[in-house]
């Protein structure tokens, strides 16, 4: 059985970025830039008034004659003299012969004349060309994740298309005869299905919005068919049916579909029977069906692969450290992933930790890693954890 770090290394080795694609900026939220973005124009591209007021030439003359008006969108020029001003509004192009804008609250208006109460400094309220960015300067480096502010920023330069890495399409197959949808009283021997909606939410909240869900009974032929269909996606996630029971058909169905096994079983708890494989560039994660096992394997392994595929440069698990509030045991000789709450750097582990339970996951905010070689950790010892449930 391989270790957690060996499993992560194998996933990295076998995962590649998806092809680059030019897409409309409006569809690019959450994607990663393939190359740096360079400013096609300066911003602002002309000298803009930052206030509603009067454009004039800064000097010693306090009484000015208003000879015209410039509103946003105008591109007017005036033969402006030192004793003259132009009425101007926020965002309007400042005439070339003016160097300063005084806000209207700072002048007295007498018919066609204004009198300046206090002379502002030269260039006050005039946004200089390229004040934000000069043409040709870098706007964003390659690898930037596109957010709403970045969409607004790029749109402000007239950019309407961006070159990004494709986001993976995902199929999620949920296996099990015992699984029942919410909405009707439980039948004897059945449980409410919860992994599909949980993993779909985990994917969508991270921007992986192309998710197809297939549900399949514990039947070899049906499982083979679902796997064949699921392999049309870039990543196939399967929940359940990967252990060694007589009705666990996932391994066989994957082999029958020509999926190459990279590893099966990791020395961890929960999630020991995790299976990872590939067919061409398509990846398959068969996640153990127990809910905490499924979610843990998703967060630690599948998510790392999805990040690599989508061009996210930040693929390593972002462990933080905290101090244990009380003694904690590891009787299993495996890496443990257990839930707790971290507050001000102190980590309290929950008592109910089992792969079949989600209660600690639902209440906790820290997925704590206990190394496989440590049998006891004393209160006050440092542990590593991943933040969960925090966004
Ligand atoms: N003889 C052995 N038995 C088991 C071993 C083993 O090494 N030898 N490993 C155990 C471990 S560890 C795990 S984890 C599970 C993994 O089993 P499967 O991946 O085959 O999952 P299932 O048997 O289908 O389900 C396990 C458990 O989870 C419930 N489940 C499944 N799917 C869902 C779902 N979508 N929503 C909610 N709950 C789900 C299912 O009812 C079972 O209780 O194998 C152990 N056995
Ligand atoms: O590895 Mo399983 O996920 O412990 O029950």
Automatic annotation (TrEMBL):
Reactions that this protein is recorded to catalyse: adenylyl-molybdopterin + molybdate = Mo-molybdopterin + AMP + H(+)
InterPro entries the record matches: MoaB/Mog-like_dom_sf, MoaB/Mog_dom, MoCF_biosynth_CS, MoeA-like, MoeA_C_domain_IV, MoeA_C_domain_IV_sf, MoeA_linker/N, MoeA_linker/N_sf
GO molecular function, one term: metal ion binding
Highest taxon in the source lineage: Bacteria
Cofactor: Mg(2+)
Descriptive protein name: Molybdopterin molybdenumtransferase
Family (UniProt): Belongs to the MoeA family.
MoaB/Mog domain ranges (all copies): 171-308
GO BP annotation list: Mo-molybdopterin cofactor biosynthetic process
């Amino acid at each position: 059985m391989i270790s957690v770090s060996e499993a992560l290394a194998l996933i990295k080795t076998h995962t590649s970025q998806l092809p680059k694609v030019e897409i409309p900026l409006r569809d690019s939220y959450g994607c990663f830039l393939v190359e740096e973005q360079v400013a096609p124009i300066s911003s602002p591209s002309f000298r803009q008034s930052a206030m509603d007021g009067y454009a004039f030439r800064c000097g010693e003359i306090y009484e000015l004659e208003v000879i015209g008006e410039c509103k946003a969108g105008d591109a007017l020029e005036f033969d402006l003299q030192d004793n003259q001003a132009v009425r101007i509004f926020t965002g309007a192009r400042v005439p070339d012969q003016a160097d300063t804008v005084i806000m209207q609250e700072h002048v007295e208006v007498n018919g066609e004349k204004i009198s300046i109460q206090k002379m502002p400094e030269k260039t006050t309220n005039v946004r200089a060309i390229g004040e934000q960015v000069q043409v040709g300067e870098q706007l964003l480096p390659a690898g930037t994740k596109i957010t709403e502010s970045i969409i607004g920023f790029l749109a402000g330069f007239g950019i309407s298309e961006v070159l990004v890495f494709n986001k993976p399409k995902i199929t999620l197959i949920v296996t099990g005869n015992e699984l029942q949808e919410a909405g009707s009283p439980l039948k004897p021997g059945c449980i409410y299905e919860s992994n599909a909606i949980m993993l779909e939410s985990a994917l969508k909240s991270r921007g992986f919005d192309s998710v197809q869900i297939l549900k399949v009974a514990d039947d070899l032929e049906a499982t083979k068919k679902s796997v064949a269909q699921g392999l049309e996606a870039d990543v196939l996630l399967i929940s359940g049916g990967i252990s060694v029971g007589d009705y666990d058909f996932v391994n066989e169905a994957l082999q029958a579909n020509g999926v190459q096994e990279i590893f099966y079983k990791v020395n961890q708890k929960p999630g020991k029977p995790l299976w990872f494989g590939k067919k061409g560039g398509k990846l398959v994660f068969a996640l153990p069906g127990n809910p905490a096992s499924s979610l843990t394997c998703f967060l630690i392994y599948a998510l790392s692969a999805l990040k690599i595929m989508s061009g996210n440069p930040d693929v390593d698990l972002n462990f933080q450290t905290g101090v244990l509030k009380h003694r904690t045991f590891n009787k299993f000789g495996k890496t443990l992933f257990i839930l707790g709450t971290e507050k001000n750097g102190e980590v309290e582990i929950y008592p109910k930790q089992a792969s079949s339970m989600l209660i600690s996951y639902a209440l906790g905010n820290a997925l704590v890693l206990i190394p496989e070689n440590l049998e006891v950790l004393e209160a006050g010892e440092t542990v590593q954890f991943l933040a969960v449930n925090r966004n």
